[in-house]
């Protein structure tokens, strides 16, 4: 059963009518969730945890909002404490801390710039100081800067996109790996654009393709250590990244190109991350799971 969408009627679900959003735009990435209308849905009240992650500790980059927030809440429901790394979105991060605490788990917010390798070391150090262990690493940070032509992608944009989307995959993994034990899980956020392409997002799609290769290669390297490495490839999801990267006009019809004729909500991603983090997926590594509203992809 879906939580009740403020803009998503029973008639719309049954008749597969397009679901649209009010036009809106924010000028700074990765965006602020508390300013979005309607607010993304991070928590599914019908999801009841069963202790799948009891006593575990997870680090989630980009955990203040969007998919990261939904994953933090889902992990908390399953018994995990979480650390959320974020850039500047303090109000969103505080809201995530409060949401996690509702389920009796602890949430440590850490602000900083993941493009700086030392910040990854700081995150790991503070996680160990607070919780004494690391079991799950969710690499979820990202930016995107749509451009009509590759000729408009400046060297600065290219460096910003790759340094944000790809470099922290290496920085965070290198910092956390010495403390991961057999049974630990690394989960990255890829994208449908890695498979289907996106004409406005040539550099972003390229980084997501790199994340797929990162996932496959790292899984082979770490399998003998008993550490599983997987990824999730979302389709269009209603998050702050959308309103901070696209025009207000584009936002109006965001997600309607999927077979389901709507964007996904963050809570609809959380169970996939829970599955990959838990022993339910003990025979799964090097894989990318697609949650995209029905878009067919080559895997």
TrEMBL record:
Keyword Oxidoreductase found: yes
PROSITE patterns per record: ADH_SHORT (PS00061)
Keyword Aminoacyl-tRNA synthetase: no
Name of this chain's protein: SDR family oxidoreductase
Family named by the database record: Belongs to the short-chain dehydrogenases/reductases (SDR) family.
PANTHER family for the chain: NADPH-DEPENDENT ALDEHYDE REDUCTASE 1, CHLOROPLASTIC, NADPH-DEPENDENT ALDEHYDE REDUCTASE-LIKE PROTEIN, CHLOROPLASTIC-RELATED
Organism of provenance: Paenibacillus alginolyticus
Coiled coil: none
Keywords noted in UniProt: Oxidoreductase
Organism lineage string: Bacteria, Bacillati, Bacillota, Bacilli, Bacillales
Domain of life: Bacteria
InterPro entries, A to Z: NAD(P)-bd_dom_sf (IPR036291), Sc_DH/Rdtase_CS (IPR020904), SDR_fam (IPR002347)
SUPFAM superfamilies per UniProt: NAD(P)-binding Rossmann-fold domains
